[in-house]
Amino acid sequence: MTETAPRPQARPAAPAARVPDAPPQGAPLPGAPLPRERGPLSAAVLRVLRGGAAPAVDVAGADPLGEDLQLALYLAYEPHYRALEGVADEREWDPALLALRRPMEQAFLEALRAAVPDGDDVTAALEPLLVEPVDGHGVSHRLMREGTWELMREYLVHRSPYQLKESDPQAWLIPRLEGQAKASLVAVAYDEFGGGRGERVHARLFADLMEGAGLDSSYGRYLDLVPAATLATVNVMSLFGLHRSLRGAAAGNFAVIEITSPPGARRMARALERLGAQERCVRFFTEHIEADAVHEQVMRRDVLGDLLDREPGLAADVAFGIRATVWLDERWEEQVLAAWDDGRPSLRGPLAPADRDATDRDATGDGATGD
Ligand SMILES: [Fe+2]
Ligand SMILES: [Fe+2]
């Protein structure tokens, strides 16, 4: 008796694709918490984000590097990156938001152009970055030599608006490049985004670092404490990245990040080791020491080199992107060090005691302070 081949069974019907339910009207939209306003511009952006009408605002009278404009610009960019609490995803392309953003971008860009020298010599613009000063006195030098957990936590909070979305602003550059420059930029980005492994995404490694230091790694958690000088270093990436006309400056900005990363990462790893930090804290920096030594070369030779071979007319923009990035970084370092020299917090206020206690307990693992 021959066995009867089993009859093919009717395939179970594929489950209907599930369309996520729209949140019921009036229910809070999830996302990063919105910060408090810092003046009329940030109040206007917050109002539009929440769905209100844009009030008339005077950008011309605002300090382009001040707290109000820099927070307003940061918030105007955020819907491109992450969900914000109470903000509809559609707000990303709301003409009212874009109309508020444009004059602020122009004011910021003008301030940057006024702050740094003109010129199209990219090699000269890069030169100061390639030499490590023997008597360095930046923030990472200070932390390595005499950093306490308190200062380390402040540093991590300053870095969090960028590092928790590390390399996202630079990803805008991908469609704006071609050939070798595009291929090489994506090779660098592949590492930044974890080389195919979610747990190795650099933003995730930074979140692990924050948690190991007893901080809350939730996106946007500390935004109220982050001053304008820090926000400007992030806003410049979004400004350059989101405008194709500024692609040269975006490439210059990315090159600075990669070139300055390895020595700084080495110092930060030593600073954390000196404090007895957990391995997951140090890993973020050790990962960058090796990876960015390669990235630096790739960015200079293959990304900037190939971009300028194709579009030599972008040299002045590339040099501007490099100089503006360095200028903003140095300005940030000066403000942080001045605050620490005076014994003040470099943030807009002190970290909550809960964060401090958690750091001392979790980071050292034995309840002793790590200072
Ligand atoms: Fe990275
Ligand atoms: Fe890198």
UniProtKB/TrEMBL annotation:
InterPro entries of this UniProt entry?
Answer: Haem_Oase-like_multi-hlx, PqqC-like
Show the ranges annotated as biased composition (Low complexity).
Answer: 1-20
Record keywords: Oxidoreductase
| Skewed-composition ranges (Pro residues) | 21-33
Question: What is any Pfam family matched here?
Answer: Haem_oxygenas_2
Ranges of Basic and acidic residues composition bias in the record: 354-364
Q: Which residues form a coiled coil?
A: none
Task: Spell out the residue ranges making up region: Disordered.
Answer: 1-36, 343-371
Q: Kindly provide the name given to this protein in its UniProt entry.
A: Iron-containing redox enzyme family protein
The organism's lineage is: Bacteria, Bacillati, Actinomycetota, Actinomycetes, Kitasatosporales
